[in-house]
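batch job 7 of whatever, protein = ornithine carbamoyltransferase
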Amino acid sequence: MAAISSFSASFSVRSDKPSFSTSPSIFSSSHHFLPKFLHFPRIFVSPLPLQISCNASSTVSVQSTSPTAKTELKDFLHINDFDKDTILRILDRAIDVKALIKSGDRSFQPFKGKTMAMIFAKPSMRTRVSFETGFTLLGGHAIYLGPDDIQMGKREETRDVARVLCRYNDLLMARVFAHQDILDLAKYATVPVINGLTDYNHPCQIMADALTMIEHIGRLEGTKVVYVGDGNNIVHSWLLLASVVPFHFVCACPKGFEPDEKAVEKARQAGISKIEITNDPKEAVRGADVVYSDVWASMGQKEEAAYRRQVFKGFQVDKTLMDIAGSKAFFMHCLPAERGVEVTDEVIEAPNSIVFQQAENRLHAQNAIMLHVLGK
């Protein structure tokens, strides 16, 4: 059988029926043992490479499938990588695709035949389910790679992971700890990379938040968003959005827990939005359209939880704080929430709480982001 697997053959098509140049030698030793209906056609063995010619003028060429470098920005790593028009266009697309999905129409399948690798160094229910469900609803197939599947940067270098996965997939999404990991992934990948969260920022969450505000307030521009709590990656993402879209952003946090100074300065230098950093939550929330909170100790900071609870006293979002904000203020939280810690149960269950609408909109905002980076 080794001889059979290594031979090359040539034939030409001259009419509607193919005609073969043949020789019986290749199967001569066993040909007479085969039933008549299993007799092989007589094939002419040639040392020349396979060539196919037809009466019609045509050529067959094999093109390299090895990845090439990205020639333009196709990643979604930071909100301020895009201008205002692009961000609002993505949000408009999210509204349209959400309506289509809600209608039950499943004919829109732009990701059919495409795959996405989802890298999770830091696990999450909402990020995994929203990305995987969204990509599936639009016709694609998402592959979950958990913390023990790759151990990116430990078991295998990030640059190697990037260059391997982009040969299998059309899109990469990663939820990691160090921000440098997402930057390295995007640097070496030749398919679009989406930032599912880093310790520095969380752009997909803020896009979902912006979509939720548009649905409930009617606009994003010109609103007042007051974040109460730790100056973390959520705050950085709000600051990056404020450097592109005009609104009033206030971060009320304890001393020593302010957001990154460079992120604050970048937002202020953009001259687009009014940016305030304060240590007085009661004064901060007055006239707010949105009061926003997050856990005081994120994943990787749990050993500081007891200490932070002491430091953050007075920064809990309770009914008293929401009353100061006013009757028009909505409460938002990126979840998961520690009820009774950074927010009371009464607030998160109140009629003006839109935290679960935020959670749903992760799916719809991310669908629009994926459509954008894949050029759909």
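notes: The chain is about 35% helix and 15% strand.
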